[in-house]
Amino acid sequence: MKKYCPASVLLVFLFFLSCKSPLGIEENVKKTDKTPENFEESGVVRDNLVAYWDFNDKTGTDRSGNGNTANVKNNPDFIKGIHGLCVELDADGINPQFIELPEISFDSLREFTLTMWVKDYGPGTNDNAGYFFYGDFYSGWMGIIRHNDYWITQSNIQYINFAVGADTAGIVPLQSLYEQLDQPEWKFYVIKYSNDYTYAEINNSNVDIGRNPRIQTPVKGIIGGIKYGNDLYHGFNGCIDDVRLYNRILEKTELDSLYNVYKYE
After folding, report:
1. Computed over its alpha carbons, how large is the radius of gyration of the chain?
2. Is the pTM of this model over 0.90?
3. What is the model's pLDDT at position 29?
4. How far is CA 65 from the centre of its chain?
5. What average pLDDT score do residues 106-128 get?
């Protein structure tokens, strides 16, 4: 009977451990790492969505399954974004680029949450810019825009404006001072609306709370512009990504998940 040296057996055992441990650790990381795919499967994306535009297929396809397809106008570029591809809009050309959103009847939504990622390149030939806009600036609008002081039209100070039913007759939006950076950065914007109150957030920090009536008629919306009556002005230079509209108020943990998605790119 052949005998084995205990030292040899120990060396063989240690050799197998050294080979197996890295693989075991790697497999464990793959199973537990919160990748974008796992994020999409978390339930946040599909739960109570009205519309979801991610631009990953270089179109305005609505990922919610509700058929709210958007029309991409004047051939913008699609580049690496916060989560896959984003749409890069240029408002300074002969044909400003924008995205036309389908009619959505906001007055039928008892409450809702709008989330979106924006990288604003700053004022170009247009001082103001629409990020997400439904309605008419004069008679009533909802969305998120960069605009000078709401009552001082010649002001050089710009604000991020959040509204659900603001107009020029006395209903003002919520405002946060806009800071133009040398290097544009992605920012996460949120509007929550419930019981006639609007809640505004930037990068998961509260901006303000205000009472706003909803716009009452279903109209087409715009990413990358502001409508004054039937005329489109104030295009947007920069990138838009991962725009989501829910028919409920998202919890803080859900907004945390959406905000932290940038870590996976």
Report:
1. 24
2. no
3. 30
4. 18
5. 85
